[in-house]
Amino acid sequence: MSVKVAKFGGSSVADAKQIKKISTIILDDPTRKFVIVSAPGKRHENDFKMTDILILLAETYNNQDVFENYLDIIIKRFSEIITDLNLPSTLIHEIKDTIISTISSDLPYVRKLDAIKALGEDCNAKVISTYLESIGVNATYMNPKDAGIVVSNEPGNAQILQESFQSLYELREHHCDVLVIPGFFGYSKEGHIVTFSRGGSDITGAIVAAGVQANLYENFTDVDSVFTVNPNIVNNPKEIKTLTYKEMRELSYAGFSVFHDEALIPAFRRSIPVAIKNTNNPSLPGTLVVSEKQKQENCVVGIASDTGFCTLYVGKYLMNRELGFGRKLFHILENESVSFEHTPSGIDDMSVIIREHQLTPEKEAKIMKKIKEELKADTVSIHHNLAIIMIVGEGIMNTIGIAKKATTALTDAGVNINMINQGSSDVSMMFGINAEDIDSAIQSLYHEFFEN
Ligand SMILES: Nc1ncnc2c1ncn2[C@@H]1O[C@H](COP(=O)(O)OP(=O)(O)O)[C@@H](O)[C@H]1O
Ligand SMILES: N[C@@H](CC(=O)OP(=O)(O)O)C(=O)O
User: How many CA atoms lie less than 13 Å away from 88 in the CB half-sphere?
Assistant: First the structure.
């Protein structure tokens, strides 16, 4: 039996008009049995995402601040959707009761925050399945607990547990034609709601696709395809037709927010192709992510960029001869719950690239003090405001001239390179630059690699 998993992102389920569009897409293909939905997203550029307001609601309630306006915004948004879809008003009363009982529950704050964040997806899934039923579809809402989505106990950063896949496979036999599953969260073994990292409905989609052994995982969003560069930086960039899991993971990791980087692994392990398509233009083929693709003349498929990094620089004469230096350095970071992204190193120097949001000024000072004292380092410093650029493509490692092209483009744009990391990955080349240079760097690289 051929089955597809279709995930609809926040922009695809942002209001009644969009929900009607996704219903047509679901009805169009009877193999679209598993539907994963996000919370209502942005309806236009300056709009808000429901998840952001839910977080503000949780925070203000916890700080005993004024929270009622956030509650009103959330209820109003769901009310509009329910009214415009001609669904019974009892549904909005149920949603309101659920939100109020969740915020006033006596759960510890981290648990409550996750339970509140999950409400956007959960309530929207209930609304969408009720709508599908109202138009005659044999659809049902399926809670992630009943679906068997068991995750690790890390609030806001869940990982799927292996045992989930067997239970998910059994969903294939479910008597309904369409199962609507809320994205973004699962349940820990202890029964707590735990969310994935932000943008994590893509992860739910990939997990369900892997579990039910789908023939295709369709990820519906608001762009016609994955573009070679971020369309918010370059106008109308070229589209990518096909790319490999590995290429997509690197690009997503480095800023192609169209697809979550952690959503690739479950699909990759079971070789399930991923199609990224536009809800507003569903007849277009979109972008296909697969295990292997034909060799292309220009091996570079995409160039991603992301900000919010910093470099922790450590210098010590004879570092290369000191057994265990790296281990001790990482141990200091581990004790402060700081993970690292990259570690370019020299003979007497080591740089550790870290995502800045993990550091507070106090944590930063503590880490630097420990490195100085415990590792007897000569120099320790932290440089903020770093951006990374990732040039990605299978075959990059064995293609002559990629670095030359990249450095020419950066030179033409007057951009200083703070760091180069090449050879650690066989599909990417990384540059570190100042965050304020990102747009001009990407525009120049796009010109060099895709227009010349
Ligand atoms: N290289 C890229 N190709 C396509 N979209 C990109 C790229 N980089 C960033 N994006 C952004 O990703 C957005 C879609 O992702 P997201 O906002 O998470 O959608 P959804 O609401 O479907 O979850 C696009 O509107 C676009 O602004
Ligand atoms: N709603 C969640 C999860 C998600 O995946 O949303 P979206 O599909 O709108 O990116 C978030 O905003 O993080």
Answer: 8
Chain-centroid distance of CA 185 in Å reads 13
Task: With beta carbons less than 8 A apart as the criterion, state whether 449 and 237 touch.
Answer: no
Residue 309 to residue 324: CA distance in whole angstroms: 26
Is residue 349 annotated as involved in ligand binding? no
CA 113 to centroid of chain Cα atoms: 19
Q: Is 182 in the pocket of ligand 2 (CB under 6 A)?
A: no
Task: Considering only CA atoms, give the Rg of the chain.
Answer: 23
* Domains of the chain and any CATH numbers: 4-290 (3.40.1160.10), 302-451 (3.30.2130.10)
**Phi, psi of 383, deg, nearest 5:** -115, 120
Cα–ligand 1 centroid distance for 227 (angstroms): 9
3-state secondary structure of 176: coil
* CA–centroid distance, residue 444 to ligand 1 (Å): 21
- Work out the angle at residue 415's Cα, subtended by the Cα atoms of residues 410 and 420, and round it to the nearest 5 degrees: 65
Confidence (pLDDT) at 423: 78
At residue 295, the pLDDT reads 82
Q: Report the pLDDT value the prediction gives residue 315, as an integer from 0 to 100.
A: 97
pLDDT attached to residue 209: 98
Nearest CA among 192, 146, 171, 168 for reference residue 266: 168
ipTM for this prediction: 0.98
Coil, strand or helix at 181? strand
**Strand 302-315 to strand 349-355: parallel, antiparallel, or no bridges (unpaired)?**
antiparallel
CB-based contacts of 58: which residues, under 8 Å, 6+ apart? Answer: 103, 109, 112, 113, 116, 117
**Would you say the CB of residue 41 lies under 6 angstroms from ligand 2?**
yes
Spatial distance between the Cα atoms of 414 and 201, rounded to a whole number of angstroms: 39
Q: For residue 423, how many other CB atoms are within 10 A of its CB?
A: 10
Q: Report the relative pairing of strands 178-182 and 32-37 from DSSP bridges.
A: parallel
pLDDT at residue number 297: 78
Alpha carbon distance 306, 303 (integer Å): 10
For residue range 88-109, what is the model confidence (pLDDT) as tens digits? Answer: 999 999 999 999 999 999 999 9
**Closest of 6, 388, 361 to residue 219, by C-alpha:** 6
> In the chain, which stretches have pLDDT less than 50?
none
Sequence-separated (6 or more) residues with CB below 8 Å from residue 249:
261, 264, 265
What is the C-alpha separation between 209 and 198, in angstroms, rounded? 20
Q: State in Å: Cα 83 to ligand 2 middle.
A: 23
Q: Is 232 in the pocket of ligand 1 (CB under 6 A)?
A: yes
